[in-house]
Each structure stands twice: as structure tokens, then as C-alpha cells.
Write a structure and sequence with these properties.
three-stranded antiparallel β-sheet; 21 helices; about 50% helix; 13 strands; Cytochrome p450; alpha+beta; globular
């Protein structure tokens, strides 16, 4: 009897607690509830909203998001815990959101990246972002970018040589080669040192960075892991800390080498040190991203040492993971569609003839002539946008036409929905590079295609990325024929998102040597 009475008491207590939480949840969000009342969306449960829908791995989370994008018009609302998110995918609404100063702030969930990236450009509050972007932008001018093409070509040449081990064999995971190549590229171009990851055939940095994305993205969608008090008592926190130790180890080493080479004695800029000569070609005279930041940091008025490392960490991620993923998806498309690969090769043959890439590498003046290859890359990024979902915080009421997005909420930009919608693209799941012919682009709203975001806070390295991807793909296609044995329909390629879009099953292809390629 006593046990029964105790159970009844506990039951009443739980019901009262749930009721109390529901009342508090409603009252504390009354203004946002009222603001979103006329906008459709899934039913929000008390306290958790729709958070229960996002339980699972990064594939499950992306699938849930894509399922929610199907039935609702733009915008629709989703409650995530006690927080309101509007989801937008209409091109004109995307333009308003991305162009507005009311959405220049990153969503507070991006703060979960700060143990890794600090407050570099990716995660910085608007006040800091404005200052740092202005300082960093000159390092991406056209003259500097053109000087990088030699590095793009040389590292891509190393990659195709390493890939010779796969010639005439079965399918292999192409990401293993590409990510080491792009890591070497970003270290040498943006940082001015050589990581030699391809020659060492491995990099703890790549594995650690990939795992960090998975951990942080999963934490974002598990609201009970948001408080540090809880997260730091989980296995994931320990794993995250170990991964951060690895990635910070590389960037700290890069900074140390640059400091040794740039500043000696009384702190005046110097040429190259003995240590730097061991890791960087002595003829390199380019001054790029890290060189400029080092000088500003040394002056002591622009960048602190911590800010310097944060921007280096941010650049390493932006320059390595994104371009590696685009390259892999593009190689998969070329392997799946041999007729398109043939057109790419015909264009390259018109530029280089039968010359081998090792004797006639890609030059910066060649890149503008690769018009069809550029359309292939853009079509790849349309179907597989690297940032499938972007999030911004709304700092003041924002009118987007028929609706007003309320201050204090956030807006999710459904890029993958826009890029794959039949409303904006005819037969959207067909791979058709000619969608990006000038006359076709003129027919579409410019915000139908925004793989690098848009507006004032768009990706700073858009030109860098396109040039790097072009150079790598051109080198590969000139040397090898890419093939895929088991071809899937595009819509059947399983995807996941750990901030960046990735394939669930690693991309595999096989290669054969082009018989036309001179030895």
C-alpha cells in the first residue's frame, strides 16, 4: 500500500512538473509563438518542439531535414527545443535574408565550434567578422590567386602519380588521395609551408577534422548535449578534445615555422630560415594569407596570437575539406557520365593536345578556357551543395514579403531544396552541365544557385576554390579515364551532413590510362 501511494505521488509530481514546464515554455516564448502562428510547420511538442525528429546519425539528421522541406512552403517554422527556426528556400526570400544586415550574425549554435575554431571568420560575431574580413580580403586578390596555380598543378601532379598504384585495378576510395592533395595545396598556398601529406600517405589532421565535424553536428541536433555541464561528462567530449589536440598541433606547427622564417633577431621580416628551407621550395616568394596575418600579428595592433591561430584553423578547414569534397563528387559524376567526361577531355585536348601534365602542367591563363569543365563543376555543386543547410540569427524583425521573421528567432536556408527543386530547375536530378550556359543562367533567379552562400557574408575563397578544383580535375582527366562499375541514379546516392555534405558510402572509382596521353 505504501509503495502504491509512493508511485501515485511520483506520478502526480511528474505530471505537475511536465505541466509546469509546458506553461513556462509557452509563456517564455509567447511573443515568438504569436509571431509564427500564421506560418505552417510541424507540430511542436512542449519543451522539445521537433527536436525528437532529429535523433540519429548524420545521415538520419539530413534525411529528416530533407523530409521536412518537402511538404511545407517557404517559409515554414520549426521549433527546436524552446527556439524558433524559420526555414526558407524560395530564391527571392533567400536573397532578402542573405543581403540583410539583420541576419549578419551567425546562429548561436555555431558557438559549439569555438573550442576548435575559436572566433575565426566562420564563427565570428559580426563586429569582429567585419574587421577581420576587411583585413584578410586582400590576400585573395587575382594576382595572388594566379600565383597559386603553379602549386595547384604541382600537387595535383603528385596526386596522379600516387594514383598510378590503382591503374587497371578495381574501384578505390578516391577521397583518400584527394584530401591529402588538397591539404598539401592549402598548406603551401595559404600558409606558405609544405605538409607533404601525399608523400607520407596519411594525415592525422584529416581524420581528426572529419571526426570533429561529425561530433559537433551531432551535438547541435541533440539538445540535451548543448550544456557543457552534460557534454563534458560524455565520451564524445573526450574524443573531441583529442581530435582538437591533433588539428591544433598541425596549425601551431605551421605558425611556428612561419614565425621562424619571417621574423628573426629584432623582429624584422627575413627571408627563409634553414628550417623553412627544409619544408618549402626556396623559390617561393608569394605573400599570401598567413604571411599577411603574421605581419599584422607581429605589429601587435591587429591580430593576437590566439586570433592568428583561429584564422589559420578556419582557413585550413575551408580550403581543405570543401574543395576535397567537391573534387570527389565531380570525379564521381565524370565516371558515371562518360559522355560528359569525353567533352571535358576534348576541351582540355584543345588546350594541351596530347602533352602529359607532368611536362605541360595547368597554367593560370589556361583556366579561363576551361568553360565546359567549369559548367561540370557548377552542376556538381548544384546537385551536391557543400553547405546544404545554413543558419543565421535574426537580430530584428525581417520582412521577406508576405511574412515577417521575428526578432530573436533564427532562419535556416534550405540550399539543397533550392538546388534540387523542379520549380527552378527542369528535370533537377539530371546531370546537365549546360544548365550553366550564359543564356540559361540569364533565365533563372540568381539565388537559385548559391553553393558558396551569398550576400556580404559569403565564402571569401570562391575564386580560390574554383581555380583549385579546375586545376586538379584537369590534371586527372588529362592523365586518366575515370570509370564507375555500379552506377546509381543520383537520387539514390545516400548523403549525410556534418556541416558539409558528404556521401554516406565513400566514393569509389577505377582508373585507366588515357592511351592518347604522351608518356
Amino acid at each position: 500500500m505504501v509503495v502504491f501511494a509512493s508511485l501515485v505521488f511520483v506520478g502526480k509530481f511528474l505530471v505537475a512538473s511536465l505541466l509546469g514546464c509546458s506553461i513556462y515554455y509557452y509563456l517564455s516564448n509567447f511573443r515568438l509563438f504569436r509571431a509564427s502562428w500564421k506560418i505552417p510547420g510541424p507540430f511542436p511538442w512542449p519543451c522539445i518542439g521537433s527536436a525528437h525528429r532529429f535523433i540519429g546519425n548524420t545521415e538520419d539528421i539530413l534525411n529528416t531535414a530533407r523530409q521536412l522541406l518537402k511538404p511545407y512552403p517557404s517559409p515554414f517554422r520549426v521549433w527546436f527545443g524552446s527556439r524558433l527556426f524559420y526555414v526558407v528556400y524560395d530564391p527571392e526570400q533567400l536573397k532578402i535574408v542573405l543581403s540583410s544586415q539583420k541576419t549578419i550574425e551567425k546562429e548561436v549554435l555555431y558557438e559549439l565550434f569555438q573550442p576548435w575554431l575559436g572566433t575565426g571568420l566562420f564563427t565570428a560575431p559580426a563586429s569582429k567578422w567585419r574587421v577581420h574580413r576587411k583585413l584578410i580580403m586582400p590576400t585573395f586578390n587575382q594576382r595572388i590567386l594566379e600565383s597559386f596555380v603553379e602549386v595547384f598543378s604541382a600537387q595535383s601532379g603528385i596526386m596522379v602519380k600516387e594514383m598510378e598504384a590503382e591503374l587497371n585495378g578495381g574501384e578505390f576510395e578516391v577521397f583518400n588521395y584527394v584530401t591529402l592533395c588538397t591539404l598539401d595545396i592549402i598548406c603551401e598556398t595559404a600558409m606558405g609551408v609544405s605538409s607533404k601529406a601525399q608523400l607520407q600517405k596519411s594525415s592525422p589532421y584529416v581524420k581528426s577534422a572529419n571526426r570533429l565535424f561529425e561530433i559537433i553536428y551531432s551535438r547541435i541536433f541533440n539538445i540535451w548535449l548543448h550544456p557543457d555541464f552534460i557534454f563534458k561528462r560524455t565520451r564524445l567530449w573526450q574524443e573531441q578534445r583529442n581530435c582538437i589536440k591533433h588539428v591544433h598541433g598541425l596549425t601551431n606547427d605551421v605558425i611556428r615555422k612561419k614565425k621562424n622564417s619571417l621574423f628573426v633577431g629584432n623582429g624584422k621580416a627575413n627571408g627563409t630560415s634553414q628550417e623553412d628551407n627544409e619544408t618549402t621550395p626556396p623559390t617561393v616568394t608569394r605573400k599570401a594569407f598567413l604571411d599577411l596575418l603574421m605581419e599584422l600579428s607581429h605589429e601587435g595592433t591587429k591580430f593576437t596570437d590566439d586570433e592568428l591561430r583561429e584564422e589559420v584553423d578556419t582557413m585550413m578547414i575551408a580550403g581543405n575539406d570543401t574543395t576535397a569534397t567537391v573534387n570527389c563528387f565531380a570525379m564521381l559524376m565524370l565516371a558515371m557520365y562518360p559522355e560528359i567526361q569525353d567533352k571535358v577531355y576534348e576541351e582540355l585536348h584543345g588546350i594541351y593536345g596530347y602533352a602529359d601534365p607532368s611536362s605541360v602542367p595547368v597554367r593560370h591563363e589556361d583556366l579561363q578556357r576551361m568553360e565546359y569543365l567549369e559548367r561540370v563543376i557548377k552542376e556538381t555543386m548544384r546537385i551536391f551543395p557543400i553547405g546544404p543547410l545554413l543558419v543565421r540569427r535574426i537580430t530584428d524583425d525581417l520582412n521577406i514579403g508576405e511574412h515577417t521573421l521575428a526578432k530573436g528567432s533564427s532562419v535556416v536556408l534550405g540550399i539543397i531544396k533550392t538546388h534540387r527543386s523542379s520549380e527552378y530547375w527542369r528535370d533537377p536530378m539530371k546531370f546537365d552541365p549546360d544548365r550553366f550556359l550564359p543564356e540559361e543562367c540569364a533565365k533563372r533567379h540568381p539565388y537559385c544557385f548559391i553553393p558558396f552562400s551569398a550576400g556580404p557574408r559569403n565564402c571569401l575563397g570562391v575564386k580560390y576554390a574554383m581555380m583549385a578544383v579546375k586545376a586538379l580535375l584537369a590534371t586527372v582527366v588529362r592523365k586518366y579515364v575515370l570509370k564507375k562499375d555500379d552506377v546509381l541514379a543520383i537520387e539514390d546516392i545516400k548523403l549525410k551532413a556534418d556541416m558539409m555534405l558528404k556521401p554516406v558510402v565513400p566514393i569509389t572509382i577505377r582508373i585507366e590510362k588515357r592511351i592518347e596521353c604522351a608518356s
